[in-house]
From TrEMBL, chain A:
Entry GO terms, CC: COP9 signalosome; cytoplasm
Organism of derivation: Arachis hypogaea (Peanut)
Keyword Transferase: no
PROSITE patterns, sorted: PCI
Annotated protein name in UniProt: PCI domain-containing protein
Family the entry assigns: Belongs to the CSN1 family.
Localization per record: Cytoplasm; Nucleus
InterPro entries referenced in this protein's UniProt entry, alphabetically: CSN1_C (IPR048624), PCI_dom (IPR000717), Rpn7/CSN1 (IPR019585), Rpn7_N (IPR045135), WH_DNA-bd_sf (IPR036390)
Record region (Disordered): 1-28
Main location: cytoplasm
Domain PCI, first and last residues per copy: 235-405
Annotated keywords: Cytoplasm, Nucleus, Signalosome
TrEMBL record, chain B:
Protein name: COP9 signalosome complex subunit 3
Organism in which the protein naturally occurs: Arachis hypogaea (Peanut)
Major location category of this protein: cytoplasm
GO biological process: ubiquitin-dependent protein catabolic process
SUPFAM superfamilies (UniProt xref): Winged helix' DNA-binding domain
UniProt-listed Gene3D superfamilies: 1.25.40.570
Length: 446, 432
């Protein structure tokens, strides 16, 4: 008897409390701290590192979370990274943004720029000559290598359009499927940097059609690229599926594009926003492969588990803490608001689903909001037909409401009958008019 | 003998059998011009003829008598004569039409049109409404036939504001039309009568017929009808979209040009779509003159009112009970009292189902009590089924009729392939 009592009481408390009280043990994983830029940047390499740092620099100046030190830190790291490469355009940009705030060693180094440009000219000439030689010799493999080199050269110098064209040209000279895959991967990389995600999708499809040349790492890379393309196209469900299918061997092999933490975050959030409960359980929570990714971002793991076990308050709290950092992410920036809204709506709908009547004050407690706010949100969801219920505003209770199928059917039938009646009558009338008009014309002709 | 008197004698003599009447018809047509020349001497002649037996003759004489310019006093005397004739005349005799023109201008139609003019001149349109109704019914070949008199009759009803009489003729479905112009006017005035009686669905149907009728050039009636169509759509359905307003079977002329003439109304509709009452009212204020010029201001005011109603109706979907204060706030009314009045009005009109608790200031929304289990409902459904089956039969009959039609076959024959799939010896043209 006692054991039963003990188990009953905490359950009812838990339903109401929804994970909001202090005694829960697995709490201290919240990271409301600002993004550690060095750690973040070390996850990436190549051009994307620079772009991400610049993005952070731009957005940390106007975001509520930003502070000037983060801005400068990002710019400094970007400068250092660019110096290692050969992109003078970006160098000029960064120098302008720094504006002398970081001291004399971080100003526009014109000597370096000129040297790099000069070197670039020479290299370009050399590549050009080589390519022409190969083209006259008509050796497919050399021509392909030539165009590839050109592509790499343009990419390093930031001329993405030309890089894209060069890579695409290698297509005619690819002989094995390995070549095709290599070409696709290069094109995908350039397209992602350019932001043209339609190309990404088409080239991913192309690459996937050559199964024998694909090792698991390449497959994982392709999945990530496809996921990114879907994310940008706002097809969150497809994006989630792609990210979840990525196998953990990816590791840091695709650091020119994406880090495994990102895979976890993007995949987790998109899944949470679009999957229904069964899918969430089977594809995310029970997914062993994806678990490896989730280990890298424990907040996302916690937040998904909380959502699944209906601890909405803590779930929403994690989301709130993550928001600031997610807004600094180059790919997710535009989608954070939408995804968050969708997750919140799903939480509200899922809360009301099992009940015939819900006390709005308890619900407001669970979601850490006021009754008035909650009423507004619920009203929007009901009008949208996402929740089948009605609000008793006087007693502040939400009553589930099930549409009467029989009455609805009768109404529809009568309405269809009326419409048919109207349409056929006007149609007969119109055909009569046309016939009359035609007769008159014929009559006149005769 | 005086040709006039000879004519009178012939009329009196030849009005008994159908053969005689046909001969009389020919004689009268020949004598038409001479009658018109002597219009001044015709009133005693009218006294000699009896409208019910000598209808055809009376009609021709009457036609000649009223053909000239008529002053107000003369109108006073002639209106009763025409009215009397219409009430007493023989329906078959008056349907005989002159074959010379395609436009089928029955003499009776001309006479009635003159009646209408005279009645308007006397500023008593109601005097013409009754007779015209009788005339229309007599002239019709069947209840599905539209005569030119229908539109005149409806116009008089609108002017005289006796909508109920107009409604009786609108209940008939029209399938046969002689002149498209009659149809336009008929539907337009019919729409106005239905709006007056607040039967918005029927008004929408009629106006829809005008707007989607086949026409080669745009006419003013269609433009005016389109304006009213927009307004009634807003009142009845609560929405109106420019892109979907005209279905594909509307004439291309209409689809292209109608909207250019109705700009203020289209903007009104888009303002309505934003669901902000203040904006809507402001727009109406600024454009009052334009609406007034089109005589649509009353309708526009009803549109504004309908917006409140629609907002309240939306509330019934989300709330079970709501305080009057909240209703006033959501629907942007000024006070709970106003909200209460609106809700009360809507309950009385049967537009929502609710109870008002005045003590708490709450309104409780109820479900539609119709259970579809009563005898009346079953009868209703049954009659709808019968009606639709009749319509289907009519549709198939029409389809059969067209496929046997000479013109259709000749056109189809011309357009057929040279060689048919199965056989080789198919004639390339259907020569009938």
């Amino acid at each position: 008897m006692d054991a039963d009592d003990e188990t009953f009481a905490p359950i009812t408390d838990e339903v109401g409390a929804n994970g909001g009280d202090e005694q829960r043990s697995r709490r201290p994983i919240i990271s409301g701290d600002h993004l550690d830029i060095e750690a973040y940047a070390s996850l990436y390499s190549g051009r994307t590192k620079i772009m991400r740092l610049l993005f952070i620099a731009d957005h940390s100046s106007d975001e509520k979370v930003g502070n000037p030190s983060m801005n400068l830190e990002a710019l400094r790291m970007a400068y250092d990274e660019i110096k290692k490469g050969e992109n003078t355009q970006l160098m000029r940009e960064v120098a302008q943004k720094i504006n002398g705030r970081l001291g004399p060693s971080y100003e526009l180094d014109s000597a370096w720029c000129d040297a790099v440009d000069h070197r670039a000219e020479q290299k370009k000439e050399k590549l050009d000559n080589e390519l022409n030689a190969y083209r006259t010799n008509l050796i497919k493999e050399s021509i392909r290598m030539g165009y590839n080199d050109f592509g790499d050269f343009y990419y390093a110098h930031g001329q993405l359009g030309d890089a894209f064209k060069s890579y695409v040209r290698t297509r005619d000279y690819c002989t094995t499927s390995k070549h095709i895959v290599h070409m696709c991967m290069s094109v995908i990389l350039v397209s992602i940097e350019m932001g043209q995600f339609t190309h990404v999708t088409s080239y991913v499809n192309k690459a996937e059609q050559a199964p024998d040349a694909l090792d698991s790492i390449t497959i994982a890379k392709l999945r990530c690229a496809a996921g990114l393309a879907n994310l940008e196209a706002k097809k969150y469900k497809l994006a989630a599926r792609k990210f979840l299918e990525t196998n953990p061997e990816l590791g840091s092999h695709y650091s020119e594009v994406i880090a495994p933490q990102d895979v976890a975050t993007y995949g987790g959030l998109c899944a949470l926003a679009t999957f229904d409960r069964t899918e969430l359980k089977s594809k995310v929570i029970d997914n062993l492969n994806f678990r490896n990714f989730l280990e890298l971002v424990p907040e996302v793991r916690e937040l998904i588990n909380d959502f699944y076990s209906s601890h909405y308050a803590s779930c929403l709290e994690y989301l709130g803490n993550l928001k600031a950092n997610l807004l600094l992410d180059i790919h997710l920036h535009d989608h954070v608001e939408t995804l968050y809204d969708q997750i919140r709506h799903k939480a509200l709908i899922q809360y009301t689903l099992p009940f015939v009547s819900v006390d709005l004050s308890m619900m407001a407690n669970a979601f850490k909001t006021t009754v008035a706010e909650l009423q507004k949100e619920l009203e929007a969801l009901i009008t949208d037909n996402q929740i089948q219920a009605r609000i008793d505003s006087h007693n502040k209770i939400l009553y589930a409401r099930h549409a009467d199928q029989r009455n609805a059917t009768f109404q529809r039938v009568l309405e269809t009958g009326r419409e048919f009646d109207r349409d056929v009558r006007s149609m007969l009338l119109r055909s009569n008019l046309v016939k009359h008009d035609y007769n008159v014309r014929q009559f006149r002709k005769l | 003998m005086d040709p006039l008197e000879a004519l009178v004698a012939q009329i009196q003599g030849l009005s008994s059998t159908p053969g005689d009447i046909a001969r009389l018809h020919i004689i009268l047509k020949q004598a038409d011009d001479s009658l018109r020349a002597e219009s001044t001497r015709l009133s005693p002649v009218l006294g000699q003829l009896a409208p019910s037996e000598h209808s055809l003759g009376f009609l021709y004489v009457l036609d000649a008598f009223t053909s000239g310019q008529i002053s107000k006093q003369q109108a006073e005397t002639s209106v009763p004569i025409i009215t009397g004739f219409i009430n007493a005349c023989n329906a078959e005799q008056i349907r005989l039409a002159p074959e010379k023109c395609i436009n089928l201008c029955y003499p009776i139609v001309l006479v009635c049109k003159r009646l209408k003019d005279q009645v308007m001149m006397l500023e008593a349109p109601i005097r013409g409404a009754g007779p015209l109704l009788t005339a229309a019914r007599k002239l019709q070949l069947s209840t599905e036939h539209l005569t030119p008199l229908h539109s005149d009759f409806l116009m008089l009803c609108v002017l005289a504001k006796c909508y109920k009489t107009g409604l009786s003729i609108l209940e008939d479905d029209i399938f046969e039309v002689d002149q498209p112009r009659d149809l336009f006017l008929y539907c337009y005035y019919g729409g106005m009568i239905c709006i007056g009686l607040k039967r918005f669905q029927k008004a929408l149907d009629l106006l829809h017929n005008v707007v989607t009728a086949p026409m080669s050039t745009l006419n003013a009636i269609a433009v005016e009808a389109y304006k009213k169509y927009i307004l009634v759509s807003l009142i009845h359905h609560g929405q109106w979209q420019l892109s979907t307003s005209l279905p594909k079977y509307a004439s291309s002329v209409a689809q292209r040009s109608l909207k250019n003439f109705c700009q203020p109304y289209i903007e009104l509709a888009s303002s309505y779509g934003t669901e902000k009452i203040a904006e809507l009212e402001a727009y109406v204020q600024t454009n009052t003159e334009k609406f007034e010029n089109d005589n649509n201001l009353g309708l526009v005011k009803q549109v504004v009112l309908s917006m409140y109603k629609r907002n309240i109706q939306r509330l019934t979907q989300t709330y079970l009970t709501l305080s009057l204060q909240d209703i006033a706030n959501t629907v942007q009314l000024n006070s709970p009292k106003e909200a209460e009045m609106h809700v009360l009005q809507m309950i009385q009109d049967g537009e929502i189902y609710a109870t008002i608790n005045q003590r708490d200031g709450m309104v409780r929304f109820l479900e539609d009590p119709e259970q579809y289990k009563t005898c009346e409902m079953i009868e209703n459904i049954d009659s709808s089924i019968q009606r639709i089956m009749a319509l289907s039969r009519k549709l198939s009959a029409m389809d059969e009729q067209i496929s046997c039609d000479q013109l259709y076959l000749s056109k189809v024959g011309r357009e057929r392939q040279r060689y048919d799939f199965d056989d080789f010896d198919v004639p390339t043209k259907f020569n009938i």
